[in-house]
Amino acid sequence: MKRKVLTVGCGGIGERHIRVLSGIDDVELSICDINENLLERLQKKYRISRLYSSWDKIDLERFDMVVICTPAHLHIPMISNALEANCHVLCEKPLALSSDGIERVIELSRQRDRTVGVAYIYRSMPALNLLREKIVSGEIGDVKSIAFVIGSDYSFYRPDYKDIYYSDLNKGGGALHDAVSHMMNYIEWCVGPTESIYCVARHLVLPDVDVEDSVGCVMTFSESDAIGTLSLNQFQRTYGMIFEFAGTEGVIRFEGPSHSIGICKEPNREFTWSEKMNLSRDDHHKLQFENFFRSIDNHEPFVCTLEEAEMTMRTILAAHESVKQHRPIPVLDNVRTP
Question: The pTM is what?
Answer without folding.
Answer: 0.95
